[in-house]
């Protein structure tokens, strides 16, 4: 079974290469779908024949506790081994990654992004020139976008480029202009290839049992994601957002790398499981290691105030990019924080917990308040992620058993609910060509099914009991209350944050679904069968986790933390 | 266990399945059949009183169990809730016969019922919380039902947000109790755990929100924007009553001295809402305020630690308030108005069914024997009378005052609706589904008093002196309204244009009609606060963190790079100068350091 670990990483990677190689073929999209489906299958069967989860330290080496292990020497002098392992904490995240990867690939392949009217001719020319210049100048301008004044979409001002927001049809559109039909615009297979690359690298992050490998995989996620945003994002803001995303996360990763190297030097091994089982690094570097690692992961998670790349990146990214950003990339940060930072330096984590907790609570409140006034739907959803991740970090910081499980659960729930919201927002924006709340309204009259799903996703996101979001957030409050004393105030803040979430999500629903039909909404089509097929696994997962949280929590219980 | 699980699962599954149905005919069958089946299950539960549990979620130090426990009293409340739901569903088939969104409506009502049953049956606080909040969400969906009504979305959001605001405290209280007791199981928490007082006050705040008691009563009157059957559902046996029900479940945990807080809330609400009901300008408004006031009676029962008396009033209130709302829907449809009291008028003969249903419902609410409301109100006040605590004294006298008010607003409504002569008649006949519901609820209203003699409730004996006092209070209320009505009778010469007994409130009448402006003030204050806090947060987050620090650092880096480039762009002379200066600095530093050491 341990070979399956390699398959889970390898299949999406091979798929990415194949799609890239055959990007001009008509079936390129479906290769991507097949690869993603295989990856999902490989991830799904991982629990079969798993070890029973008991931990043993056998002559300094961690032997069991993982479900499966795969070990191959790579560069031993650098402490770098290609060692993969999976357990109850990482497996749900791997499954989530594979599922979202598949859904995104299917979305690219099957969902035709429809507008209600034929696109204006200037769009085709604009996109064609944009692609030409983008690729030509990409190398010279990687840092230049920071000097470009902030795009209008972020300031919430008018959004002139909204009607071009469906991403640039890249190479295929440019090389074969005759084959590109803007009426049935379908994203380029290159996007699928990049998605698969993100999926492969993220899976490797969750699987790696070696700290150096972890770092390499962590960085490897960045490149394809940068390309997705930079190339296929909303033309008004994508370059700025992509550069900000890349630079911000690289800066965090470097701190994280320093922390990892300190830990490796101190422990004398880069075997993650072994260090965790040995109780982490020695006391005198514990706080240092935790601070460095946590800062790096806090950028990715993101933890307030290191979050400001996120709203820009999510807003500018194409729909599938936002989905992967929210569903997978943020999970890298929280997974790293809980498993790696918390596992390597448990003492440091305990010392730094109050700081983390206060920042997380601040993040919950600030994000909630900011969301109350945001005029754009994707940006609102993006900011809500900051709040949700605040819950996860707060629960982790509380440090109790219930807290850690709540953090892991909330993490996963967010990975189902927010991607669903992004899919829906993407569907809405591709139909109406606007994401501004002021220009929307009456969706439940025009497209009842889409509106119903929006309502469902919003209720799930605000933590309605019976749906996935509830358990993580309610037990964050519990974990904080369990600590007693000043933590009670943080519990109150978290509970109030859930109220703010209800307020801003209902505001969103009121503007989008209710009221008279807005001109932008009039005449749009309801959800198509392909869209329903893409969304329904997320809906089902949200319901399932909400009604039956037990099995997942049991998995977390036997995980290695 | 299976039985209780089925009791909750039956309407829940029907609701979820109903959300997927788009066709009207199957939706109708599912909508009505599920509560009918559940009614049977609830009856079986009332006999068997099942209990059972399994672990739903294990958080290591604490578990959430799917623990359901239907004690006889709980089963009675469940029966009342399902009974009202069933009749509401039946009524809605006719009431919403032309509504394009009926299918979703029926499904949501069933979900609502399932949530209420979960609250009633739950023995685990977190499980209770699930039902509690799902109910809030369903109320949001149902109140927003009419797509064409401009105020509906706002009213729905207000209902959800106000109750959710209370839930902030509720969740905190539940978690606090769980953390200090080590379990969420109500049956396992024997003694009040440490910090129970504060936690119970938090939970009380949540119940105040759900039950629309003072000071969170603001969401209920606007919630009338929902269809009338929804109002019946929310007011009669579910949401609004759920707050009182939960308080009775948690009575063993209350520190006795803190019950005074409940008493104060109940007293203020009973009197204040009664005055508002007396002044309200439309039919459903009167009923809404009367609900707030009547739930105050239930809180009064809790305040004197007489949980069963409160539940008895809950059940009898479910019968008469369900009847009143459903009849109000019929009356408004018959009169063809928007429900404002100025325009809505019928003659008793226009629809004898509506007339008698309304009369019996109002009489029960006012507490006339031998109807259900008489017994239940009597037991609540009897318990307060016997309690002998400060809380008992407060709620007793507030209850007597509220009884006068109840009689007054019930009489006013009755006179205004039926004794002002003929209005325009829009519709002649009442559809059979609607009239069946009215008949059934009328029978329930008349018969619910029997629970006093043969019910599961442990209630105090009737006191003759109390009964006399209460009847006197009721008659006093009738007399005041009747006097005003008589004086304003149409006479030749002095014709009173506005013949409305609410005139007895004098100048304060407009204020009470507007609910003492609490809603408007709260809305304005909340909006202003939200705007200020949102602007502050955005300034902090977008301007300070993002623009200044993050992008500022990027700008600073680019600028520094540019400066460095500029520094390297000089001629030979500049390089020479710079190197000379550099050498000098290095030399000076070296000399300084060597001298120092």
From TrEMBL, chain A:
Example of a GO biological process term: ATP synthesis coupled electron transport
Region annotated Disordered, chain positions: 118-146
Entry keyword Membrane: yes
Alphabetic keyword roster: Membrane, Transmembrane, Transmembrane helix
Principal localisation: membrane
Membrane-crossing segments per the record: 31-49, 93-112, 211-229, 241-265, 285-303, 315-332, 352-373, 380-400, 406-428, 449-472, 484-506
Every NADH:quinone oxidoreductase/Mrp antiporter transmembrane domain range: 208-493
Gene Ontology CC annotations of this record: endomembrane system; membrane
Membrane topology value: Multi-pass membrane protein
Composition bias, Low complexity: 124-137
Protein name (Swiss-Prot/TrEMBL): Proton-translocating NADH-quinone oxidoreductase, chain M
Similarity annotation: Belongs to the complex I subunit 4 family.
Taxonomy, superkingdom: Bacteria
Molecular functions per Gene Ontology: NADH dehydrogenase (ubiquinone) activity; NADH dehydrogenase activity; ubiquinone binding
Subcellular location: Endomembrane system; Membrane
Tagged with keyword Transmembrane helix: yes
Listed InterPro entries: NADH_Q_OxRdtase_chainM/4, NADH_UbQ_OxRdtase, ND/Mrp_TM
Automatic annotation (TrEMBL), chain B:
Molecular functions (GO terms): NADH dehydrogenase (ubiquinone) activity; NADH dehydrogenase activity
InterPro entries: ND/Mrp_TM, NU5C-like, Proton_antipo_N
Membrane topology: Multi-pass membrane protein
GO cellular component, one term: endomembrane system
Signal peptide limits: none
GO biological process: ATP synthesis coupled electron transport; electron transport coupled proton transport
Keywords of the record: Membrane, Transmembrane, Transmembrane helix
Broad class of the protein's primary localization: membrane
Domain of life: Bacteria
This protein's name: NADH-quinone oxidoreductase subunit L
Taxonomic source organism: Glycomyces harbinensis
């Amino acid at each position: 079974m341990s070979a399956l670990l390699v398959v889970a990483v390898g299949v999406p990677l091979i798929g990415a290469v194949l799609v890239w190689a055959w990007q001009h073929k008509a079936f390129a999209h479906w290769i991507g779908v097949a690869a993603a489906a295989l990856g999902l299958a490989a991830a799904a069967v991982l629990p079969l024949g798993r070890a029973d989860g008991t931990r043993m330290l056998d002559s300094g080496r961690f032997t069991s506790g993982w479900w499966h292990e795969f070990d191959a020497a790579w560069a031993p002098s650098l402490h770098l081994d290609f060692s993969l392992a999976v357990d109850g904490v990482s497996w749900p995240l791997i499954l989530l990654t594979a599922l979202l990867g598949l859904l995104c690939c299917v979305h690219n392949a099957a969902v035709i992004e429809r507008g209600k009217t034929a696109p204006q001719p200037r769009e085709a020319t604009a996109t064609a020139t944009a692609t030409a210049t983008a690729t030509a100048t990409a190398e010279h301008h990687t840092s230049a976008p920071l000097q470009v004044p902030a795009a209008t979409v972020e300031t919430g001002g008018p959004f002139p480029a909204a009607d071009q927001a469906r991403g640039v049809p890249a190479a295929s559109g440019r090389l074969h202009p005759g084959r590109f039909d803007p009426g049935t615009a379908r994203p380029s297979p290159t996007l699928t290839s990049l998605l698969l690359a993100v999926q492969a690298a993220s899976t490797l992050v969750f699987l790696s049992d070696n700290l150096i490998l972890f770092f390499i995989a962590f960085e490897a996620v960045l490149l394809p994601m940068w390309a997705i945003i930079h190339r296929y994002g909303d033309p008004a803001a994508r370059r700025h957002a992509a550069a900000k995303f890349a630079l911000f996360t690289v800066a965090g990763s470097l701190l994280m790398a320093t922390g990892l190297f300190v830990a490796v030097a101190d422990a004398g091994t880069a075997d993650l499981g072994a260090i965790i089982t040995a109780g982490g690094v020695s006391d005198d570097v514990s706080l240092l290691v935790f601070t460095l690692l946590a800062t790096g992961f806090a950028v990715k998670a993101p933890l307030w105030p290191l979050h400001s790349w996120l709203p820009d990146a999510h807003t500018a990214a194409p729909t599938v990019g936002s989905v992967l950003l929210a569903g997978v990339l943020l999970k890298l940060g929280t997974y790293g924080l809980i498993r790696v930072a918390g596992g390597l330096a448990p003492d440091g984590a305990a010392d730094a917990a109050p700081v983390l907790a206060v920042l997380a609570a601040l993040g919950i409140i600030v994000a909630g308040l900011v969301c109350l006034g945001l005029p754009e739907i994707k940006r609102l959803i993006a900011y809500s992620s900051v709040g949700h991740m605040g819950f996860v970090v707060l629960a982790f910081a509380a440090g109790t058993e219930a807290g850690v499980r709540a953090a892991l659960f909330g993490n996963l729930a967010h990975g189902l609910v927010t991607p669903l919201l992004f899919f829906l927002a993407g569907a809405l924006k591709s139909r109406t060509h606007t994401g501004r709340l002021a220009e929307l309204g009456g969706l439940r009259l025009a497209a009842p099914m889409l509106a119903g799903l929006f309502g469902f996703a919003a209720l799930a996101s605000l933590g309605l009991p019976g749906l996935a979001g509830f358990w993580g957030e309610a037990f964050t409050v519990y974990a904080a209350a369990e600590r007693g004393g000043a933590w009670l105030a943080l519990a109150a803040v978290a509970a109030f944050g859930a109220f703010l979430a209800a307020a801003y999500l209902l505001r969103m629903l009121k503007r989008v679904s209710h009221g008279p039909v807005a001109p932008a909404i009039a005449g749009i089509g309801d959800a198509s069968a392909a869209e329903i097929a893409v969304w329904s696994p997320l809906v089902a997962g949200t319901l399932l986790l909400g009604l039956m949280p037990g099995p997942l929590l049991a998995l977390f219980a036997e995980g290695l933390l | 266990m299976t039985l209780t699980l089925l009791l909750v699962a039956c309407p829940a599954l029907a609701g979820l399945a109903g959300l997927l149905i788009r066709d009207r005919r199957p939706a109708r069958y599912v909508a009505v059949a599920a509560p009918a089946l559940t009614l049977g299950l609830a009856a079986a539960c009332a006999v068997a009183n099942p209990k059972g549990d399994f672990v739903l979620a294990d958080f290591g130090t604490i578990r959430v169990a799917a623990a359901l426990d239907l004690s006889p009293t709980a089963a009675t409340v469940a029966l009342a809730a399902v009974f009202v739901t069933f009749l509401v569903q039946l009524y809605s088939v006719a009431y919403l016969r032309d509504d394009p969104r009926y299918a979703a409506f029926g499904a949501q009502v069933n979900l609502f019922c399932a949530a209420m049953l979960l609250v009633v049956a739950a023995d685990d606080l977190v499980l209770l919380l699930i039902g509690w909040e799902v109910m809030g969400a369903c109320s949001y969906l149902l109140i927003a039902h009419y797509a064409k009504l401009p105020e509906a979305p706002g009213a729905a959001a207000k209902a959800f947000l106000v109750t959710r605001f209370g839930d902030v405290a509720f969740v905190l209280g539940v978690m606090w109790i769980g953390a200090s007791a080590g379990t969420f199981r109500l049956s396992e928490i024997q003694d009040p755990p440490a910090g129970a007082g504060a936690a119970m006050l938090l939970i009380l705040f949540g119940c105040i929100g759900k039950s629309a008691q003072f000071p969170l009563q603001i969401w209920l009157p606007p919630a009338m924007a929902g269809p009338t059957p929804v109002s019946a559902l929310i007011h009669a046996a579910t949401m609004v009553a759920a707050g009182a029900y939960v308080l009775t479940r948690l009575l063993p945990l209350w520190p006795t001295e803190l019950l005074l807080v409940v008493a104060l809330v109940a007293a203020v609400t009973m009197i204040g809402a009664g005055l508002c009901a007396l002044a309200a300008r439309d039919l459903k408004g009167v009923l809404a305020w009367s609900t707030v006031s009547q739930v105050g009676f239930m809180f009064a029962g809790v305040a004197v630690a007489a949980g069963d008396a409160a539940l008895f009033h809950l059940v009898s209130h479910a019968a008469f308030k369900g009847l009143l709302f459903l009849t109000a829907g019929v009356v408004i449809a018959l009169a063809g108005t928007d429900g404002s009291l100025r325009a809505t008028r019928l003659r008793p003969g226009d629809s004898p069914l509506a007339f008698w249903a309304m009369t019996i419902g109002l009489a029960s609410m006012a507490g006339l024997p031998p109807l259900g409301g008489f017994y239940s109100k009597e037991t609540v006040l009897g318990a307060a009378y016997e309690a002998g605590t400060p809380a008992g004294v407060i709620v007793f006298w507030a209850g007597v005052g509220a009884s006068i008010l109840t009689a007054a607003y019930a009489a006013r409504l009755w006179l205004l609706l039926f004794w002002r002569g003929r209005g325009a008649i829009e519709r002649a006949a009442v559809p059979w589904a609607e009239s069946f519901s009215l008949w059934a609820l009328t029978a329930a209203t008349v018969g619910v008093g029997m629970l006093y003699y043969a019910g599961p409730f442990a209630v105090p004996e009737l006191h003759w002196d109390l009964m006399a006092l209460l009847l006197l209070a009721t008659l006093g209320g009738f007399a005041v309204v009747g006097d005003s009505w008589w004086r304003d009778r149409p006479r030749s010469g002095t014709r009173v244009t506005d013949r409305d007994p609410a005139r007895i409130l004098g100048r304060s009448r407009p204020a009470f009609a507007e609910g003492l402006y609490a809603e408007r003030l709260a809305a304005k204050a909340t909006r202003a606060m939200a705007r200020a806090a949102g602007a502050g947060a955005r300034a902090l987050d977008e301007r300070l963190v993002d623009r200044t620090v993050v992008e500022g650092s990027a700008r600073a880096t680019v600028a520094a790079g540019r400066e460095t480039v500029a520094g390297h762009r000089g001629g030979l002379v500049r390089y020479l100068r710079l190197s000379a200066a550099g050498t000098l600095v290095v030399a000076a530093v070296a000399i300084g350091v060597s001298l120092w050491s």
